[in-house]
């Protein structure tokens, strides 16, 4: 029942899809860190919709306003608060949803949890729009991590079953970040086909962190995998998280799975990275690698079976409004941002 | 860097594989709850090794001693502390590991994190033996959940790629809990083959919670999936967690994935359960279902490539000692216990 | 290193004295609670300066802007964010303080903690202005407490050694809340005398909560007194907190101190309330009563001995700028607000 | 509703007065720290009763058994668990208290909170005996602080209104630690007089920490004073906490209260220490000084007015059993221990 995360770094999100504003408070940032806001805005652009066939038509400028925490472009040790105005809202699209919840969307549970007092408009606090301040916080953490020699990046691992090539951490920025361009075009094509049919598709985002020293994190609870998974499942539509070989490791033999150690110019490394950079909950000095599964967008324009919460009868739902036929491209910066926040929190704790 | 978990219910584990004792403190249990210790011990028996081909030879009695928190078989509102003695220890087996870490085991990172001061013997605090007090805490929570109409159970979903049948929550207790006995026997056979070759295998545990009302949990952080994943990744050897259709949902269309709502005698239900009982981080009244991937046991008797941390040179490792060729059967109660702890914590918070 | 407080209810403050804005995020409010913003603003007026001899000349309108969490005047279950603009700022007054810290003010420690990167202007994040969003959060909690039959109020117990009469909880609102008007006038006179001499005075605020059931709170840590004290010491200038008979109890005999129980129409009550409504960290059904000591305002216009952090030499400081000669009258709503936040958090946990 | 404290260092207490055992788990201790158990036991001796006129007759050996966290006398990075057996128990003394609660004791609220399921015997979890594992944890932290150049010590500031001399931090160990021996003898005499009359007396403990660098702690919540007060109010019988000049500062002028800065061989110091070493919640490099007020022991042998919770009628109570006529001498190590735990937690966070 909380919209905050972090041990040393506390990130508190607030706002609803159609509230006056939304934003984030980041408490615990070290003082004296320069923040390049232009680069933050550039990162936010990666999750912006409204520019192509696979995103919604909603296109707000999404410029952050810094209320506190930064003086002369540097953090001052006080909590950083950034807010975004909600200007382009179309609340009337959601009138029907007050009574008839969208299948596999949060409408029904929000109604139950808040006994009908939840903000229905645009999904309220459950809206994907809350990932905007999340990405802001992540973009800030990315800069602080970079200054400490750590990079975090991600690519689209698959959409609708179409796979990208393996990811080595080299930048694949852009609206549709795949290593292999052809694979990317096939994915886009599959999204467009689904969209044309009033349907949606899901996908997998693969993300990694390079440059972490060995010894971060800890055993049992509060380990790196637990904390990353905790953050990642907070992104709307995530249904699975795996590290290194992940679920595939369940079908492997130990002799094949185990990552052999070797000395590389005085440093301990492993020849493979099936462990995804984490052993016993602690970083081992190899890249931390994980994949996050996104379900297909629940809002589709095909008619769906639902119920009317007012009449207590079965009902058919025709969803109006603007929705992405696939949220995976816009989810990539959300995964990066979440990872950056969690990892910077872990870095602040130190070895 | 913490061995505790929970918001309303705090579960603090302590102990090392070969320390004088290990145990758990459970803070926040409601007062006046009867605890049937015989049933707790029966549950602990499910994770006990030493009785068949696929478990280690180590066989301790593992009887909990209740230090506090229970008076006349009932909780008294004070923290419940249960301890276990470590009697059957064979520390000398681990001498070599002080210098040469086992691949894909926590030896190396524990050494780095604690600058050589970690308890090497038996894996120290990183040992699977720490799941004993974890299971104790889970067994207590299971009883309190049952009293509130909630059951939590699990089966072996797959081992070494051999799949069990779908799980409907009917009890599949026993040392090797599969729905389909033939599938179970094939799994045991694959474990025995790997063991005979000095190797190990992994698998997947599927777990569910039945009887939860809609409205538990919350949006964004502290949602049900985040909290369960946080707990589950703390179990040694877990490399992936997925809910409902999980990673498979990434390849599905929305029209196929979305769970249609319908009215069932006044209650809102869904015809399918691809969401695994969780929408927007909140329970929707359907069973909460998830799978947890376990890597193959890292300790294998085949020779492995490693490094010598003292000499700084490459080294070959031959692991001695007793190790399960597959930890999945003993992991089943660990998954149930973790889920019971996290879910009872969420139940205590209420809708 | 945190600007947030609370277990069930998380209150996160942000902003600096002269940043673009400041505000608060309140996470965990129950949904469906009507918030009367006019009454919130009325409460904020109680901490407003600029209207008399004993307050600073700074007079901003201090109208909250609600960014999120309220729909149609009711909480919607999402975090409530309220912000305030900073319009009337006079940063140049503080130039000298960058090098020469004010005695008994936070200037020096903020400089050390943040290695010179702290926001000096107006005291930055350490400014008493941060009590504005604190009072906003408290005013919201007061309304929710009132709806549950709990009232929280306070009076000026003493200023400069001049004592008010005992407090029975009847409202003593107003700019200068004393039970006895004559005592209040003497206090005002002592403040004016000190101000005329370029000096300042301190005082004590006494606060109580009426209507709490017995059984709230808990033993050892997280008890009512610990949590209230934790919150109260976060108000600038607080140097002491005591409950019931407080420090005076140290000089009493048990036979005189102990509060005799008696039955009052089926309810257990005590004849005296030296315990201040708290036994063993838990409410006993009597009013929760405590006093908070405020030191004299550190910013005085008399010349003071200090050091120059740039030159590393002793220096004489002449503080310019506008400062209250006594912050106690404006501290009254801050104490009430803090108590309301902490007590509502405890009420949400329940017995 | 929690028996744990700390951010980086988690200290979890468990046990009841007459449960099988009681103890503490300390999670977050750095690895490789040597712990001198003989000195720990020596510290525990300071809170031991049974040896003189002003303590109870109960005299257990109170030897800690280390279950985990220490290998070869050094911390190993895993949680340290120490337990104590309860051997000398006299449960029957408490039979009457099940129905008739002691005035100003926790009997009544424990009954209400836990709906009659609380452990009545010896005060259960509310017993002063829980300060034994608290002192253990504090004794461990004292050694780690000492290694970092920080000492924490305390003296009896007053008992029954009889004052000791000012405290400069020089060791005043012993059963009855006062700076001035004559004052100490007068205090003992006043305790004996009260005891002879079946009554009890209270007092004040003054404690300080020497050697802390400037810059520890933080603004608003989680500041040094809030955290110390949070810990101190968890000690049974504490009714007030004040820092530096404390409540007396409320009667002082700013010109008299403010601590003038001066340079002392390159270091910034203050000529007086009315601030008790804390400005804006942050250490200023001067000794951190505070006082804690203890009420008289509630258990007195004089007849007292109470109620019978079974019959719902007024009742007269005659308390049997062994009780200290003054808990202040035994409270001194409890204050030191609590301060050591909280301060070491703050030291671990760093500037």
Structure in words:
The structure is a homotetramer of 351-residue chains. Chain A is of the alpha+beta class and 351 residues long. Chain A is built from 7 helices and 18 strands. Chain A has helices at 37-45, 107-113, 131-147, 181-196, 224-232, 254-257, 328-349, and strands spanning 4-5, 10-15, 21-27, 65-68, 70-71, 74-75, 80-85, 151-159, 162-163, 203-210, 238-243, 261-264, 267-270, 278-279, 282-283, 288-294, 304-308, 313-317. A 5-stranded antiparallel sheet of chain A has the order 1-2-3-7-4. The model of chain A has no long low-confidence stretch (mean pLDDT 92). Chains in contact: A-B, A-C, B-D, C-D. At the A-C interface, β2, β3, β4, β6 and β7 of A face β2, β3, β4, β6 and β7 of C. β11 (238-243) of chain A pairs antiparallel with β11 (238-243) of chain B, so a sheet runs across the interface.
Task: Please describe the topology of this protein.
4 copies of one chain form a homotetramer.
Chain A: E1 4-5, E2 10-15, E3 21-27, H1 37-45, E4 65-68, E5 70-71, E6 74-75, E7 80-85, H2 107-113, H3 131-147, E8 151-159, E9 162-163, H4 181-196, E10 203-210, H5 224-232, E11 238-243, H6 254-257, E12 261-264, E13 267-270, E14 278-279, E15 282-283, E16 288-294, E17 304-308, E18 313-317, H7 328-349
Helix pairs in contact in A: 1-3, 3-7, 5-7
**How many strand elements of chain A?**
18
As an assembly, this protein is: homotetramer
Q: What is the share of helical residues of chain A?
A: 10-25%
State mean pLDDT of chain A (0 to 100 scale).
92
Basic shape of chain A:
globular
* Largest beta-sheet details of chain A: 5 strands, antiparallel
């Amino acid at each position: 029942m909380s919209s905050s995360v972090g041990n040393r770094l506390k990130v508190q999100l607030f706002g609803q899809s159609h509230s006056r504003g939304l934003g984030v408070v980041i408490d615990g940032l070290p003082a004296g860190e320069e923040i390049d806001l232009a680069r933050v805005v550039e990162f936010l652009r990666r999750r912006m919709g409204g520019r192509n066939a696979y995103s919604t038509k909603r296109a707000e400028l999404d410029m952050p306003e810094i209320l506190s925490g930064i003086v002369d472009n540097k953090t001052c040790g006080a909590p950083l608060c950034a807010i975004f105005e909600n200007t382009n809202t179309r609340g009337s699209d959601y009138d029907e949803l007050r009574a008839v919840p969208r299948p596999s969307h949060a409408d029904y549970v929000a109604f139950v949890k808040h006994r009908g007092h939840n903000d229905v408009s645009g999904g309220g606090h459950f809206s994907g729009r809350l990932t905007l301040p999340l990405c802001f916080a992540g973009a800030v953490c990315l800069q602080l991590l970079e200054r400490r020699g750590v990079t975090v990046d991600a690519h689209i691992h698959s959409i609708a079953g179409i796979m990208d090539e393996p990811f080595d951490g080299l930048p694949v920025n852009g609206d549709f970040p795949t290593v292999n361009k052809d694979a990317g075009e096939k994915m886009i094509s599959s999204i467009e086909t689904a969209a044309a049919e009033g349907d949606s598709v899901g996908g997998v985002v693969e993300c990694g962190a390079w440059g972490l020293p060995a010894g971060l994190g800890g055993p049992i609870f509060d380990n790196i995998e637990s904390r990353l998974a905790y953050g990642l499942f907070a992104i709307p539509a995530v249904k699975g998280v795996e590290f290194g070989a992940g679920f595939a490791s369940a079908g492997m033999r130990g002799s094949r799975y185990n990552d052999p150690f070797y000395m590389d110019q005085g440093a301990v490394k492993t020849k493979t990275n099936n462990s995804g950079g984490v052993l016993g909950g602690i970083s081992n000095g190899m890249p931390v690698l994980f994949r996050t599964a996104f379900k297909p967008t629940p809002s589709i324009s095909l008619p769906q079976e639902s119920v009317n919460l007012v009449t207590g009868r079965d009902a058919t739902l025709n969803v109006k409004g603007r929705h992405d036929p696939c949220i995976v491209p816009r989810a990539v910066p959300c995964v990066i941002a979440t990872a950056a926040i969690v990892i910077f929190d872990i870095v602040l704790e130190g070895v």
